[in-house]
Amino acid sequence: MAIIIIDYGVGNLYSVANAIKKVTKEKIFISNNAKKIKNSNRIILPGQGAIKDCIKELKKKELYWLIKDLIYTKNIPVLGICIGQHLLMESSEENNSVFGMNYIQGVVKKYKNKKYKFKIPQIGWNVVYKHKEHPLWNGIKSGSRFYFVHSYYVKTNLKNNILGITEYGGKRADVITYYNSVITVQFHPEKSSFIGLRFLKNFINWLP
């Protein structure tokens, strides 16, 4: 098995790689090489920064359509982390509205603190509640705490696509979503201590 962490110039690539090394002996590559990506068994799409810049870099490195093609034709397991989650949605309110890869039906909305006074971005630990049973929850209790850094959150009306939810600033956020072979998370499993490591291990062992 080869696990590829997509390198498109943004994201906590080495933090993610180091976390995965703690839970598997499989080969791990940080790469933007098309051949390596095509031959991989797992893809991880991390990301930090503005979604518009992330999409620009993916297209510049000719990875945008490659990833979409692999998802649709190979049903390859993909994990989108933080901005990686946003990229796989229909659209985002960030950067005056941006279209995503449109694989999971959901929109990325901006936190607004007009009614509730809370800090934006959310930086720190928050609880995640199980919304639906799935192998990604193996060994993880509903209400476990994960580490977040974000100003935007995902909202989907398709309940079957939601695995985990949290609340911040009076808003429910769908922080674990999935469709077929794709899992997306708003939190950073690589920064979420032993619970995050268990989540990564579950993803690596998961057979869609």
Structure, described:
This protein is an alpha/beta fold and 208 residues long. It has one domain: Rossmann fold. Helices cover 25% and strands 34% of the residues. It has helices spanning 13-21, 34-38, 51-60, 64-74, 83-87, 193-205; strands spanning 2-6, 27-31, 42-45, 78-81, 89-92, 98-99, 104-110, 122-130, 144-150, 152-155, 162-168, 171-179, 182-185. A hairpin with a 2-residue loop joins strand 11 and strand 12 (171-179). The longest helix is centred in the last third of the chain and has 13 residues, at 193-205. The radius of gyration is 16 Å and the shape is globular. The mean pLDDT is 93.
Radius of gyration, rounded? Answer: 16 Å
- CATH architectural arrangement: 3-Layer(aba) Sandwich
Strand order of the largest sheet: 2-1-3-4-13-12-11-8-9
**First-last Cα distance:** 15 Å
Shape: globular
Work out the count of structural domains: 1
Question: How much β-strand is present in the residues?
Answer: 25-35%
Q: What is shown here, in short?
A:
This protein is of the alpha/beta class and 208 residues long. It has six helices and 13 strands.
Task: Name some characteristics of this structure.
9-stranded mixed sheet, EC 3.5.1.2, single chain, Rossmann fold, 25% helix, 208 residues, 4-stranded mixed sheet, globular, 6 helices, transferase, Class_I_gatase-like, alpha/beta
Ordered list of secondary-structure elements with their pairings:
Blueprint: E1 2-6, H1 13-21, E2 27-31, H2 34-38, E3 42-45, H3 51-60, H4 64-74, E4 78-81, H5 83-87, E5 89-92, E6 98-99, E7 104-110, E8 122-130, E9 144-150, E10 152-155, E11 162-168, E12 171-179, E13 182-185, H6 193-205
Parallel strand pairs: 1-2, 1-3, 3-4, 4-13, 5-7
Antiparallel strand pairs: 5-6, 7-10, 8-9, 8-11, 11-12, 12-13
